[in-house]
Amino acid sequence: MERRGRVSAGSESGLGRKLAALRDPAAYPHPVVSIEAIETHYAWVFLAGDYAYKLKKPVRVERMDHRRLEARLHSCRDEVRLNRRLAPDVYLGVMPLACGADGSLRVGGEGAPVEWLVRMRRLPRERALDRAVAAHAVTPAIAIGIGTLLGEFYGSAAPVPITGDALRQRLLAQVEADCLELRSADLAIPRELLERVIEAQRRYLREHGAQLERRAADGRFVEAHGDLRPEHVFIGSPPCVIDCLEFDRELRLLDPAEEIEYLSLELDLIDAGWVGEIVSARCHEMIGDAPPAALAAFYRGRRGMHRAVLVARHRLDPLYRDAGDWRAGAIRYLHRVAG
């Protein structure tokens, strides 16, 4: 057991002391036997008994600046608000890590807040869709339930105004930016494979851009989840979806058809394409939408290409670069969407 960090009352401790405090079961307002700490790019998550607590790192990246405590509080509140849309019983609120009169740090304690934490109900990892697929625990009824949840979510979301021209320009910029990263010499992605994927994206935008313009005009774009992957979907009664992409609203402004294609692609990669087909059919049935095949293929390719970029970036990240063959992972995405 690690000791809790101690700082002078009212001051903000360093990150190391906060992490030490959150690793101590005595720092929590409920019984805790042991703590499991998980580090991600931008946060630490502490699994403590029946709950999980998320601390956002004081970092700045292109679309996010969490260096100030006030900014992290605002981000915590946004995370709870946005994730309650698809997981209302999971995201319980925001709690302070407070510095008491004796200098000790306690979750929800009295004293000056030195950090803010998202408090969540802890979900059994085996209920995550990727784990359930691996355990052969997913049934057609479960897939229909997930599609129903998503259909209700998209169907009740307010349309986001966007012009067809702005949409086409945004997507073209995304294609070109991803193209530039994937052509990096150290990745050595097979040229023919990469060019086939890139040209399919460009060709759709040249020849079928009117489909995108119609969907924009029809109000098909909403503030969606933003990172709809199987590991974020939890089966149950009812199912729920966690870990919305909360730090940039623009990245959440999507056509539901794109987000569903993203989930379907990820399920296909773990040999559960049939689950994606059922989820997609149910969701589109509920929202009264039948996306054209060319559009669905474009969205699938768009997500596959961008996921290849994100996977490839892990090779440059000290936290992840030795944890896998990231080049092979990127190539796998490209093969899957190359057609």
Key structural traits:
alpha+beta, two-stranded antiparallel ribbon, 15% strand, globular, disordered N terminus
Task: Compute the CA-based radius of gyration.
Answer: 22 Å
CATH architecture of the largest domain: Alpha-Beta Complex
Cα distance, first to last residue? 53 Å
Overall spatial form:
globular
Q: According to CATH, what is the class of the largest domain?
A: Alpha Beta
Number of helices: 11
**Percentage of residues assigned to helices:** 40-55%
Bin the strand percentage.
Answer: 15-25%
The counted number of beta strands is 12
Number of domains: 2
Lateral arrangement of strands in the main beta sheet: 1-2-3-8-6-7
Written as H for each helix and E for each strand, in order along the chain, the element string is HEEEEEHEEEHHHHHEEEEHHHH
Low-pLDDT segments? 1-13
Backbone structural class: alpha+beta
Q: How much is the average pLDDT?
A: 93
Q: Can you tell me the CATH topology of the largest domain?
A: Aminoglycoside 3'-phosphotransferase, Chain: A, domain 2
Main pleated sheet: 6 strands, antiparallel
Provide structural commentary:
With 339 residues, the chain is of the alpha+beta class. The chain has helices spanning 15-22, 69-83, 129-134, 140-156, 164-182, 191-207, 209-217, 256-269, 273-287, 293-313, 326-337, and strands at residues 35-39, 43-48, 51-56, 60-61, 64-65, 91-99, 105-107, 112-121, 222-223, 233-234, 240-241, 253-254. The strands form four sheets. A six-stranded antiparallel sheet has the order 1-2-3-8-6-7, sandwiched between helices. Strands 4-5 form a two-stranded antiparallel ribbon. α5 crosses α7 (209-217) and α8 crosses α10. It is built from eleven helices and twelve strands. The chain has two domains: 15-122, Phosphorylase Kinase, domain 1, CATH 3.30.200; 129-337, Aminoglycoside 3'-phosphotransferase, Chain: A, domain 2 (Alpha-Beta Complex).
